[in-house]
Amino acid sequence: LFFQILGAVILGFGIWILADKTSFIAVLQMSSPSLKTGAYILIGVGSLTMLMGFLGCLGAVNEIRCLLGLYFACLMVILITQVAAGLVIYFQKESLKEELSNIVGSLIENYDPSNDDKRNLQDTWDYVQRQIACCGWTGAKDWENNEILINKSMTEYPCSCSNSSKDLEVDSGFCNLDDPVNSTATYADWPVHEQGCMDGVEKWLKDNLGVILGVCTGVAVIELLGMILSISLCKNIHSEDYTKVPKS
């Protein structure tokens, strides 16, 4: 039963990644094919886990060795896959960080409020900047690469970065700088948050690292217990009795 619930959670998480449109995950999902592929993998693993939970229950209740053996083998494959994925993420974290920087950098550089084709992606990034109270990926200076702001001599700034109360009602697009010096300005003149979104995301991960590791460890331990119990029960069944299989 637990593995059916676990499978449903994994399946739901994969679907959430594909469906979510209002968080940093959505920015990555729309910009990076690898995250979308990962979401489909999660959906597949969740579905497989639910199926294995059902087969495990069926094998245990009816004492069918082949089902218990299949249950053990699938749990082992899932556990090995999870460990391998964790190791890949750990050892490739710098590459992943660089990829994130490239994705967000390209988004900021080409940000255009009049571009309806990218409206969903841009609105999502505005949402991220408002929620985390950040500006750009490494800082507000990233926005100096935006083509529209360059053409306007930096006398405008992204409204979603603003730390001014007068811009609270404007949650996307660009806002006008009140008193630009000589009709030009720099990011240092903007009333925006100093923190980059990279620092905000890293802070969130650090704050929740204990919970994330705890959940992953708990799932791994329960999977190990399931493997041990299934193989023990399988050994205690001396011969397969297919007459115990429920008839339809």
From TrEMBL:
Question: What does the UniProt keyword field contain?
Answer: Membrane, Transmembrane, Transmembrane helix
Localization of this protein? Membrane
- Indicate the transmembrane segments per the record: 6-28, 40-61, 67-91, 211-233
Identify its membrane topology class: Multi-pass membrane protein
Predominant localisation class? membrane
> Is Transmembrane helix given among the entry's keywords?
yes
Q: Name one GO cellular component term.
A: plasma membrane
Q: Which SUPFAM superfamilies match?
A: Tetraspanin (SSF48652)
Q: A Pfam family for this UniProt protein? A: Tetraspanin
- Name the family the entry cites: Belongs to the tetraspanin (TM4SF) family.
Identification of the protein by name: Tetraspanin
Q: Which organism is it from?
A: Stercorarius parasiticus (Parasitic jaeger)
